[in-house]
Amino acid sequence: MESDPFVWSCDSGLGTGAIALITIVATPSTLDRVCTALSNRPSPRIGSIAHRSFLDIDDGLFMRASSNMMLMAPHGGIAVRHKFVAALTALGGTQSEMAASEVELRSRWPEANEMVEACMLETLSHCQGRIAVEQLLKQPALWRSAKASDGLDHHDQSLRWLVSMPTVVITGPANAGKSTLINALAGRAVSLVSNIPGTTRDHVGTIVDLAGIHAAVVDLPGERGDADAIETQASRIAEEVIERAALIVAVHAPGQQPCRHRACAQSTAQTLSVQLQADRPSVDSKEFASDYCISALTGAGMIDFVTAVKDALVPPAALHATTPWRFHPLLKSWRDRQSPTIE
Ligand SMILES: Nc1nc2c(ncn2[C@@H]2O[C@H](COP(=O)(O)OP(=O)(O)OP(=O)(O)O)[C@@H](O)[C@H]2O)c(=O)[nH]1
Ligand SMILES: [Mg+2]
Description:
Elements: E1 6-10, E2 22-25, H1 28-39, E3 49-54, E4 58-66, E5 69-73, H2 78-90, E6 93-95, H3 100-108, H4 115-124, H5 130-145, H6 160-163, E7 167-171, H7 178-186, E8 204-210, E9 213-219, H8 229-244, E10 247-252, H9 262-266, E11 270-275, E12 292-293, H10 302-313, H11 316-319, H12 330-338
Parallel strand pairs: 1-6, 7-9, 7-10, 10-11, 11-12
Antiparallel strand pairs: 1-2, 2-5, 3-4, 4-5, 8-9
The site of magnesium ion has 6 residues, from helix 7.
């Protein structure tokens, strides 16, 4: 009957307290086996909580957090805890030094040799983009060779858009060429293009690979003085999108006055100003200063512009760092235990 070993941890610590919080991480069948041995009934359904009597000594809550994790809250007194720990040990359980969240992560990635590898595999499973993958693959070696004096927070902010997709908004006056630009970036027709001002009446977004970094690029409706009720409503939604933006691309066409949503002025996001339609001859083209002058129609200047967007989202210096990057929230507590003197 002693099969399929499992790990458990006491997240409330092993001192006495009103309630002990014990977490078991195991396969679903082992969770059922352990639960039945303790309380004569299998584990509660995923996401549910059951009040159980157990070991003929106490009663308390059994909570099924996920397919392979169950939390139990028996009385925290010495006698109950001792009986509980003895029962778990007899059933094949090993107490883990790690926090329950770490145990669960390791159980999801059994092929990982260490915490940082499990964090890397977990993050790789949901991040996108060539640069994110390259940076993550470098991390186990960087963490292994890191000295305790190496700062941990240094690159967290700079590299955050590699693991959490940034929003890049394109904003500017009607007819500037915003929809033409998003279509060129996406390499397909995402947004309607026409020479009628006000063609884009609501925001349109798509995920774009910007020189190796994936971003949600959003084409906002153009700003016009004579907006109708629907456009005014769309403009309010656009302001909310701007508030969430990691980067604002403020565009205008030759001869147009650059204008921005009110939210742009309040935003702390970095802004790139861009003159579009650079292929069109215009006496006014130098009138308003811009960081970039490009043509989405001919492709002129597009490579430099896309590189600038990528660099604004993730500074190149951070990509060449030789100190570790805390790309997963569990790495902080894990590292603290490895090197108690750090920070
Ligand atoms: N020559 C030239 N024309 C362009 C370029 N980009 C856009 N246009 C033209 O400019 C007009 C407006 O383009 P859109 O992309 O619809 O402009 P928009 O900023 O999205 O306009 P709204 O949706 O009304 O705010 C269309 O006739 C496009 O063909 C460009 O790079 N060069
Ligand atoms: Mg448009």
